[in-house]
Amino acid sequence: MQEQIFLTYINTSECDSYTLTGTVNDAFVDIDVSKRFFHVPLNVTSEGFTNSIKLKVNYIYQENSFQAMPILLWQPHHGNNLRQKYRYHLYQHDDKNFFIKQSLPWLGSNTLIDSELKIKKKSSLELEPTLIINNTNKLSRTCVTMKNFTYIPDSWLVCYEFYPTKYKTTPGKNIGIRIEKNLKFSPICSKNKFNYVSIGQKIIGMDKILFFKKINSIWDYLNCFKICQSIVSAHYY
């Protein structure tokens, strides 16, 4: 069965007037690439689907600071309740140049993309689904709950266990992410009280916190998702 999957780019800075036009699998696309994130729609099947990508960067006026890099592939989690609505399945690689090696370059003002990307989705009852890229490269899945792809400069990112432990079989498999400028730690009030973290309007018990980090750059942001992946892929005995 053919499924839609997205290739996400992140801009090092936001530049007005930029678009990405062309065809993906012979379908015309016109993508606004002026914001921090933008997403190229692709296809994946269990047998492997070869995506044909022919795109060109366009602009009304040129900005030398325009630069965007491919960072991961993702799919939305299909569910009806509110928690499932904001779940994403992320597929990424430890090598930050992974997509460049797959002929998907960083984007600048005069970039042309003329590439093919074969994506195969492999899963079983025992194993977490993985993607096989161009027949040889394996990307593991990380399930993350967040409202959207958000980058807030000079902010905090908190990664936490999303469901109570009694509903999980493997620690760290269900994680949530919050990104806000305001982060506060509560004191321990008594022996029967655990301290907690307040990030924005969300209050999270310290026993659920997996890690937190100050976000000073897009590199800090991207490293956090690498840490999330490491937590999910760790083995517990």
What would your notes on this structure say?
- With 237 residues, the protein is mainly beta.
- The chain folds into two domains: 143 residues, no CATH class; 79 residues, no CATH class.
- Helix content is 10%, strand content 47%.
- It contains three helices and 16 strands.
- Strands 1, 2, 3, 4, 5, 6, 7, 8, 9, 10, 11, 12 and 16 form a 13-stranded mixed sheet that branches.
- It is globular.
- The two termini are 35 Å apart.
- 22% of the residues are buried.
Short description:
With about 240 residues, the protein is mainly β. About 10% of the residues lie in helices and about 45% in strands.
Which consecutive residue ranges, at least 5 long each, have pLDDT under 50? 164-172
Work out the number of β strands. Answer: 16
Estimate nothing, just give the exact number of structural domains. Answer: 2
**CA distance, first residue to last residue:** 35 Å
Fraction of residues in H or I helices: 10-25%
Number of helices: 3
| Largest sheet properties | 13 strands, mixed
* Shape annotation: globular
Which radius of gyration do the C-alpha atoms yield?
19 Å
Query: What is the SS-derived class?
Result: mainly beta
Fraction in beta strands: over 45%
Q: Averaging pLDDT over every residue, what do you get? A: 84
Task: Provide the succession of SSEs.
Answer: EEEEEEHEHEEEEEEEEEH
